[in-house]
Write a structure and sequence with these properties.
Elements (H helix, E strand, L loop, with lengths): L5 E5 L5 H14 L3 E5 L6 H10 L7 E7 L4 H8 L4 E6 L8 H8 L8 E2 L5 H13 L3 H26 L1
Parallel strand pairs: 1-2, 1-3, 3-4, 4-5
Helix pairs in contact: 1-5, 2-3, 5-6
Bound molecules: 5-O-phosphono-beta-D-ribofuranose (RP5).
Length: 163
């Protein structure tokens, strides 16, 4: 995309099936994003370059997903002033995902990562859009329409159950 405002990164291509939900909801809301693989452990130099350069390239929010010893969100947060949203990914060799959750959630004071639920990259995308909407009235309208669509679905379900 020409002018990405959200950077979606993940520790491995194997995280993509989970992280795709963030991309999909950003697309639905009309938010430009970029998406790539950055591994804290396998490509530390790439992680440094990405995190240090993101703000200068116009990125406003970073969504970082990783599984296992999921150090990517926290390390990226340590390298940039941008808000970082962490997505714990339940990888194939994980201990029910608790490894991913705790290694993203338990950040030291001073370096926050906004951690969403296990595999919940859709909420990460929505949260990124909500952060951007504080300075974007058009995006506010799209978010309100999105929330209205959720409400309508629940109301439709309630009506169906009456029948
Ligand atoms: C983490 O290890 C990745 O974020 C992924 O969730 C997990 C497994 O990676 P692969 O071995 O599938 O590349 O770094």
């Amino acid at each position: 995309m020409s002018n990405p405002k959200v950077g979606i990164i993940m520790g491995s291509k194997s995280d993509l099936p989970v992280m795709q939900d963030a991309a999909d909801v950003l697309k639905e809301l009309g938010v430009d994003f970029e998406i790539t693989v950055v591994s804290a452990h396998r490509t530390p130099d790439r992680m440094f370059t990405y995190a240090r350069g993101a703000a200068q390239r116009g990125i406003k929010v970073i969504i970082a997903g990783a599984g296992g010893a999921a150090h990517l969100p926290g390390m990226v947060a340590s390298l940039t002033h941008l808000p970082v949203i962490g997505v714990p990914v339940k990888s194939s060799n994980s201990i029910d995902g608790w490894d991913s959750i705790l290694s993203i959630l338990q950040m030291p004071n001073g370096i926050p990562v906004a951690t969403v639920a296990l595999n919940a990259s859709k909420n990460a995308g929505l949260l990124a859009a909500q952060i951007l909407s504080t300075a974007d009235d058009a995006l506010v309208k799209n978010l309100i329409a999105y929330k209205n669509s959720l409400r309508e679905k629940v109301e439709e379900s309630a009506e169906e159950m009456k029948r």
